[in-house]
Amino acid sequence: MNRRSFVTASGAAGLAAGAASTAGAASAAESFNQFIELRYLYLRNSRSNQVGRTREFLEKQHLPMAKRNDFGAVGYFDVYLGPNMPAMVMVTAHDSLADMEVKMARKRADKKWMAASDQFGSGDDAPFDRSEVWLLRAFDGMPKLEVPSTREGKPSRFFDLRTYEAETYRDVREKIRMFNSEEIGIFRKTGVNPVFFGEAVIGSKLPNLTYLVWYDDMDARTAAWTKFVADPDWKRISTKPEWANNEVVSNITNTHLKPLPFSPIR
User: Fold this and answer.
1) What is the per-residue pLDDT for 30?
2) DSSP states of 204-218 as a string?
């Protein structure tokens, strides 16, 4: 919020105090946990080529729109193995709910985007069967999405999108506490490389948490999880009664993703 004040010479001290307060507020804003938007596009193999048309639209229309409107790095993924195939997943990070609203307003005001999206949805055959959106709040232990480093000329990485459902919100909070205190660190040291961890605020299968991790390839994935389950710190924390999976996790869904060739997160 912009403020205008008329300050006399005798109010210089008040001006300095106000500047310090504004700086503090800005610093606090920078430390806010991001909100991660997961958008699922459920498709079908069809003679009208839903999969190909949707992939082309994301590359030639959605990604340029995201770049024009300063969306930051956006992830575009094919579901390699998981429920409801064929499907695609989009990942967008927002610094706050206000930032999310700003991006939505920019998108609505983008005439080129609005025309392209209207045209995409105006054919006789639907471009996709259904879309589902989840909104996640990033964990304190990893408050911002981390984009993997670029690696030109190398094969795409392999990603896991994992959802942990729980019987109660208390169980979700306890599992998040486990991640924040130690498990994220164990992931990092064993080669399970995080992109984000988030508690579901809006979506299905509530209550739950969802995270996205990556590996260089399938062999690296196997090696990382072998190392993880053998890690002494993991063995120690996973045997705590309050953190045992059968106490705080009721169901796990694991979806294997491969980034589309044009995806900035890859």
Assistant:
1) 57
2) SS-SEEEEEEEESSH
